[in-house]
Design brief:
Blueprint lengths: L5 H8 L12 H14 L13 E6 L6 H15 L4 E5 L5 H11 L3 E5 H9 L7 E4 L11 E7 L1 H11 L5 E6 L1 H17 L3 E6 L3 H13 L6 E5 L11 H12 L2 E4 L2 H6 L3 E5 L1 H16 L7 E5 L2 E6 H6 L6 H4 L4 E3 L3
Parallel strand pairs: 1-2, 1-3, 3-4, 5-11, 6-7, 6-8, 8-9, 9-10, 12-13
Antiparallel strand pairs: 10-12
Helix pairs in contact: 3-11, 8-9
């Protein structure tokens, strides 16, 4: 249940806008994946010395704090050691925190959420930091970490598994915030034999017009609509209700990276698996502790869970068996 809460907490812990930056090419993403895969072997996972790794996360109350608790549990599982977590508020004293980390022997910090990143950026860390729990990071090409935005390759693979007849994915996006994500999506679509129709919009009115035009010309037999993480072009008050209504009337599949959209009627979404995300972040931190300081870039999220709306699936004529439904982590409407 706590994993589902992440979508609702993003406005509290993430920057409101900014570029989503990922490694520049598929090779970079592949190297990142190889690093994570190698670390999955217990024989290749060194135990972290106590105190050398710490986690900074926003000092926020329940139920949202549990999200960060789950990430921390994943970090400890991968590190095979207790890892001290420091909840940090906006009023946190950086001098005091710096002294605490130094006295504990901390060499690498995993910074979670907006407040964790802001606080860690002002500290003197011998081996730097690993960033997680954010969807946008300033100067992300200089950092190392994992975004909260699911890898488009995983989204498109899930889409083809449910709707193998789909040939084109339509997306309306704001180039000021999501151009790097769309670049990554183009590579993923090409690799999976999909056409990606990208429509730019820089304001809400423009986004509405783009959606109206796209939906009017869409064919439910071959087209699907992707709602990316974008507060402008996927505005929850105006855009999402309009798009869900029109897609239902025109029998066009919608998929997203927000479980909230599935609850409202989107066909499916991918959302973070907090525990596994923690393990992946720990792997990057372990690499830094072992001397790998050259790796840069904030990779897309691959530790994901899946949500499905069976009512929308039925409306589109999809027959999803009980056994198939078990492969999803969340089903809507809830029984």
């Amino acid at each position: 249940m706590a994993g589902w809460l992440l979508a609702g907490m993003l406005a509290l812990v993430l920057p409101a806008a900014g570029a989503f930056t990922v490694p520049d090419n598929t090779a970079a993403r592949g190297a990142h994946g190889e690093q994570l895969a190698q670390a999955a072997d217990p024989a290749r996972r060194p135990r972290v010395a106590a105190g050398t790794l710490a986690v900074l996360y926003p000092d926020i109350g329940e139920p949202y704090r549990k999200v960060f608790t789950e990430i921390l549990e994943g970090i400890e599982d991968q590190a095979q050691s207790h890892v001290h977590g420091y909840p940090v508020a906006a009023s946190a004293d950086p001098v005091e925190l710096q002294a605490t980390l130094k006295n504990s022997g901390c060499r690498v910090v995993i910074a979670l959420g907006r407040q964790g990143l802001k606080t860690a950026s002002g500290l003197d860390l011998p081996l730097g930091m690993v960033v997680g729990g954010v969807s946008s990071v300033p100067d992300a090409e200089k950092l190392n970490g994992i975004s909260l935005t699911p890898d488009p390759a995983l989204l498109f693979s899930q889409l083809k598994g449910l709707l193998p007849g789909v040939r084109r994915v339509i997306v309306v996006y704001n180039p000021q915030t999501n151009e790097p994500l769309i670049k990554l999506a183009r590579e993923a679509a090409r690799a999976q034999g999909l056409e990606l129709l990208t429509l730019e919009a820089s304001d809400l009115a423009g986004a509405v017009r783009r959606y109206e035009t796209a939906l009017a010309g869409a064919d439910g037999r071959r087209d699907a609509l992707w709602l990316p993480p974008d507060p402008l072009t996927v505005d929850d008050g105006v855009i999402v209700p309009m798009v869900l209504r029109e897609s239902w009337n025109r029998n066009i599949a919608i998929f997203s990276s927000s479980i909230v959209h599935v609850r409202k009627g989107a066909l499916f979404a991918l959302y973070p698996n907090n525990f596994e995300l923690g393990r992946d972040l720990a792997t990057l931190a372990l690499a830094r502790l072992n001397g790998d300081l050259a790796r840069r870039g904030v990779a897309p999220l691959r530790a994901v869970r899946t949500a499905l709306n069976t009512r929308s699936a039925s409306h589109m004529g999809l027959i999803i068996s009980t056994s198939q439904q078990r492969s999803f982590d969340a089903i809507f409407p809830e029984p």
